[in-house]
Amino acid sequence: MIQWRTQRNPIIGDKFASRHGQKGINSFLWPTESMPFSESGMVPDIIFNPHGMMIESMAGKAGAMHGSTYDSSPFVFNEKKTAIDHFGQLLVRAGYNYYGNETMYSGVDGREMEVQIFFGIVYYQRLRHMIADKFQVRSTGPTDPVTLQPVKGRKKGGGIRFGEMERDAMIAHGAAFTLQDRLFNCSDRDIAHVCARCGSMISTLRCSKMLSERRNSENSIVNHSEREMCLLCGKDDQVCPVEVPRVFRYLVAELAAMNVRLQISVKHPANLSQ
Prior knowledge:
Blueprint: E1 15-18, E2 23-25, E3 37-38, H1 54-66, H2 83-93, E4 101-102, E5 104-105, E6 117-118, E7 124-126, H3 131-134, H4 164-173, H5 176-185, E8 189-195, E9 204-207, H6 211-216, E10 227-230, E11 239-245, H7 246-257
Antiparallel strand pairs: 1-2, 1-7, 3-5, 4-6, 8-11, 9-10
InterPro entries: DNA-dir_RNA_pol_su2, DNA-dir_RNAP_su2_dom, DNA-dir_RNAP_su2_hyb_sf, RNA_pol_bsu_CS, RNA_pol_Rpb2_7
EC number: 2.7.7.6
GO molecular function: DNA binding; DNA-directed RNA polymerase activity; ribonucleoside binding; zinc ion binding
């Protein structure tokens, strides 16, 4: 058995986590000279959003200043004696802000930042989830024959799932065309024919001219052009092409198998008002 050991520097996309279960993805690598620094000249190693677990960092900062350890089990503190109040008083005794905030200076222009920033000690570890082993790229590839959507799986050359959170992010940014491109144009875009008279999608069928018309025709050239025709109405003048996801057509067929009719309201292009 041969084991390989390679040294990898952290890159964008690598995963880190604290000892308290706060996972995070490296989203940007700032140069050292551009990092903010405190009044004592300390430069942070990691910058993350203020929604993280700050109490652990407050406990680590207080423990580093007083040289002691603290019990962090969930039954030590209660509503009357909170953890933030306990560690806040320890930080005040050490000469720091009650919440552990410090004045920071910009590493770009050296100006003092208007808002005090939380600055503390947290042990962060690197996880094995590295982007160099997990990245996935796809332009074209295999699709599911039923849904026409890209198959899943990196080994199969499948696509990357565009989930609900990605959808909500696109909606929040107002990127409607990008959302349509990801979930519709590049996924399972299909052309369905709907009868505007009865609202049926599964009753339309592509067929040629009637045989009786062919037999009664005196011309030697018979019209073999094909058109979409509704089998329920027996006419083809109100059949409209509609762009829908392929899974929607699959849903309509599944509901029809359970005696549930889905009636679609469409308007013929000739009847639309200018």
